[in-house]
């Protein structure tokens, strides 16, 4: 029998695993449609930033993904393991830092696990202290540690750096970038800061009129350089989408 000629068979196109799949999502408050038939996908391990004018519905979307709001219509698929960190660290003042980190953890979290997470975010030495002695940056790190011990497949961050001073903010941004690379979870970062979005993410979404009006793939090598002309071009484009004219302070 004739021997079959070996053939190179093209591999089927493998769709990357989805971490978030949202279809036709709508949310109304009173007579106002904040989300209007919105679709969004996030791939496993992807870092996505969400920009948009104040009040456009970014936090509303994030809260729905976090299962903190169920008054919506549409289809929302998210991984079981997810964690949220907000602008305010939301630590319970009557529990020590490490107890805050493992609070509500399914299966009862241990001190060792909390310590590891606190070490990872650089505040292991604060484990036994009360939240009130932490600086703003430290409290935010504790909040990140609390999210990380949950080993999330999806990390939802709602303006986690907004209340920090400029230097602390840069360090916290670097930390989030490192944690993301180490843990490999998908991240959705709600932010007002276009530069932060371009520095950290694989893709930036711009929300407008209740939908994702624009998406920008950030195909720049990491670590990113704000002085890179390609960075500046993407930043300018996003500012245009946000209605902030390039090089001016006026609104278009
Ligand atoms: N629980 C609620 N009850 C009534 N209205 C709400 C509620 N939550 C949000 N809204 C309204 O929905 C709209 C979107 O709010 P949301 O907080 O999602 O916006 P945002 O884009 O995150 O804003 P910001 O950037 O200022 O944080 C706003 O007009 C807000 O007033």
UniProtKB/TrEMBL annotation:
<dbReference type="GO" id="GO:0005524">
    <property type="term" value="F:ATP binding"/>
</dbReference>
<dbReference type="GO" id="GO:0016887">
    <property type="term" value="F:ATP hydrolysis activity"/>
</dbReference>
<dbReference type="InterPro" id="IPR003593">
    <property type="entry name" value="AAA+_ATPase"/>
</dbReference>
<dbReference type="InterPro" id="IPR003439">
    <property type="entry name" value="ABC_transporter-like_ATP-bd"/>
</dbReference>
<dbReference type="Pfam" id="PF00005">
    <property type="entry name" value="ABC_tran"/>
</dbReference>
<keyword id="KW-0472">Membrane</keyword>
<dbReference type="InterPro" id="IPR050166">
    <property type="entry name" value="ABC_transporter_ATP-bind"/>
</dbReference>
<protein>
    <submittedName>
        <fullName>Sulfonate ABC transporter ATP-binding protein</fullName>
    </submittedName>
</protein>
<keyword id="KW-0813">Transport</keyword>
<dbReference type="InterPro" id="IPR017871">
    <property type="entry name" value="ABC_transporter-like_CS"/>
</dbReference>
<feature type="domain" description="ABC transporter">
    <location>
        <begin position="20"/>
        <end position="234"/>
    </location>
</feature>
<comment type="similarity">
    <text>Belongs to the ABC transporter superfamily.</text>
</comment>
<dbReference type="InterPro" id="IPR027417">
    <property type="entry name" value="P-loop_NTPase"/>
</dbReference>
<keyword id="KW-1003">Cell membrane</keyword>
<keyword id="KW-0067">ATP-binding</keyword>
<keyword id="KW-0547">Nucleotide-binding</keyword>
<keyword id="KW-1278">Translocase</keyword>
